[in-house]
Amino acid sequence: MRVVLQRVTSASVSINGNVHASINGGLLVLLGITHEDTQVDIDWLVSKITGMRIFNDHDGKMNLSIQDTAGEALVISQFTLFATTKKGNRPGFTAAARPETAIPLYEAFLSSLSRKLNKEIPSGIFGADMQVSLVNDGPVTIVVDSKNKE
Fold this sequence. Notes:
The protein has one domain (2-145): D-tyrosyl-tRNA(Tyr) deacylase (D-tyrosyl-trna(Tyr) Deacylase, Chain: A). Helix content is 24%, strand content 36%. It has helices spanning 39-51, 66-69, 99-117, and strands at residues 2-15, 18-23, 26-32, 55-56, 62-64, 72-77, 130-145. Strand 4 and strand 5 (62-64) form a beta hairpin. The model has no long low-confidence stretch (mean pLDDT 96).
């Protein structure tokens, strides 16, 4: 699994011109799922995301996690995070999991994150054509990959 985390002051996702979900502050989580992902990847990522200290403390230093700030999270499925661009100019997406594999993992990720943060997690709709709006705070944008634990 691969996520792009963006610290935001606000974010929303619209589908067919209507706002489907929004948050006022916290993390926008763009989630990509590949064929080899399992519950182990979900558990590791949820722990990493909820513990990552990327929110400012009272001194303006990034010392607080989303759990410390009681921030919100908006999760958007994004298969394009597993695009391959090695050959030619058209990205390939064969590394992204097919819906029959990805949807249960996406739903499990949402459930795990919801339990860890003890709140409902707004999200987009898997496979929908979505428009995502955000105000990146900082800007802070971090890529985390469960298969490449840097």
